[in-house]
Design brief:
Elements: E1 2-4, E2 15-21, E3 32-35, H1 75-85
Length: 86
């Protein structure tokens, strides 16, 4: 997945790469997401985007807050939330 940095931010027009994996139990369980734009593990753009590729987001079950709901949650929600972090 390639997410473009939002306008009006220091990351405007930046390209941020993520790997998205929907396992066999999707959509009952959230997808897995790994942040790939880390400069070889040297760069961290946000406190919830780790240099080891970990993405902390409640929808993914990796952070506190509203969890994934298989009846309502979508991959689009996940991607929009990630774009808001950048």
């Amino acid at each position: 997945i390639l997410i473009i940095g939002p306008q009006g931010t220091p990351y405007e027009n930046g390209l941020f790469e993520f790997d998205l994996l929907c396992q066999n139990h999707f959509p009952t369980s959230p997808p897995r997401l790994e942040f790939r734009t880390t400069g070889g593990g040297r760069v961290r753009f946000n406190p919830n985007l780790y240099d080891d590729g970990t993405v902390c987001l409640s929808l993914l079950g990796t952070w506190s807050g509203e969890p994934w709901d298989s009846e309502k949650s979508t991959i689009r929600q996940v991607l929009v939330s990630i774009q808001a972090m950048i």
